[in-house]
């Protein structure tokens, strides 16, 4: 596959995780920041390679072959993110663009050795699951911080918004994966939360709480 074909497969895979129905060309075009006509041309190529099911005006879905291929691309991307953070001391807001380049490396042997070198991580630095060599994913029970009730506590296990701006904000607030967060109170007016994080109290907006995944403890 070309880099472009791999990028499209990954985009369809990510859209499939948030949309229940078949994926429209317009949704893919928005995700890829391109024209719908360009998407249609690419979908025909992917269909010819048995990577997607595509019918004009009816949307697209991944074939079993396409799903596995997409998972392997995601696997490489997220393993490289772990490597960059854990071994090269990149911050979690810096690694996405670099991993976008590294995910196109073809060597399966290299990826499997990288996985072993990192001791087979199941999540990337943002808390997203890493498919194993067979494409299987270990799912972690999680919910948004905004869904917790007063006096409940959760451990931060991921972020919904992976933008650099949001991750940098979390760094400034001392919020990271593994942070223990207790809901102290909730403002009725704007749903902002007073929280205790690792023993320190602060107030965060509902928008922030709605982009933090936690595992309730």
From TrEMBL:
Output the SMART domains linked to this UniProt entry.
Answer: FeoA, HTH_DTXR
What's this protein's function? Answer: In the presence of manganese, represses expression of mntH and mntS. Up-regulates expression of mntP.
Q: Which PROSITE patterns match?
A: HTH_DTXR
Q: Which UniProt keywords apply?
A: DNA-binding, Iron, Transcription, Transcription regulation
Task: Give the similarity note.
Answer: Belongs to the DtxR/MntR family.
Protein name, UniProt field: Transcriptional regulator MntR
Localisation: Cytoplasm
Kindly give the InterPro entries that the UniProt entry links to this protein. DtxR_MntR_Metal-Reg, Fe-transptr_FeoA-like, Fe_dep_repressor, Fe_dep_repressor_sf, FeoA_core_dom, HTH_DTXR, Iron_dep_repressor, Transcriptional_repressor_C
An example Pfam family from this entry, by short name, is Fe_dep_repr_C
One GO term describing the cellular component: cytoplasm
Q: Which GO terms describe its molecular function?
A: DNA binding; DNA-binding transcription factor activity; protein dimerization activity; transition metal ion binding
Subunit structure as annotated in this protein's UniProt entry:
Homodimer.
Indicate where this protein is primarily found. cytoplasm
Record domain HTH dtxR-type: where: 1-63
Q: Which organism is it from?
A: Flavobacterium amnicola
């Amino acid at each position: 596959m070309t880099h472009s074909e791999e990028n499209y497969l990954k985009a369809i895979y990510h859209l499939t995780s948030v949309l229940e129905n078949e994926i429209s060309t317009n949704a893919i075009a928005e995700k890829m920041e391109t024209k719908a006509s360009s998407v249609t041309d690419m979908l025909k190529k992917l269909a010819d390679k048995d990577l997607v099911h595509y019918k004009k005006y009816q949307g697209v879905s991944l074939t079993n072959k396409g799903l596995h291929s997409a998972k392997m691309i995601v696997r490489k991307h997220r393993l490289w993110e772990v490597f960059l953070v854990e071994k090269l001391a990149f911050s979690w807001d810096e690694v996405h663009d670099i991993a976008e380049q590294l995910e196109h490396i073809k060597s399966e042997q290299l990826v499997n050795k990288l996985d072993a070198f990192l001791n087979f991580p199941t999540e990337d630095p943002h808390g997203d699951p890493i498919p194993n060599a067979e494409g299987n994913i270990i799912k972690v029970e999680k919910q948004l911080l905004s869904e917790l009730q007063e006096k409940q506590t959760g451990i931060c296990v991921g972020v919904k918004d992976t933008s650099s701006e949001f991750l940098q904000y979390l760094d400034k607030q001392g919020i990271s994966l593994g942070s223990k967060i207790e809901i102290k109170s909730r403002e009725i007016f704007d749903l902002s939360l007073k929280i205790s994080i690792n023993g320190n109290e602060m107030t965060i907006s509902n928008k922030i709480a709605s982009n933090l995944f936690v595992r309730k403890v």
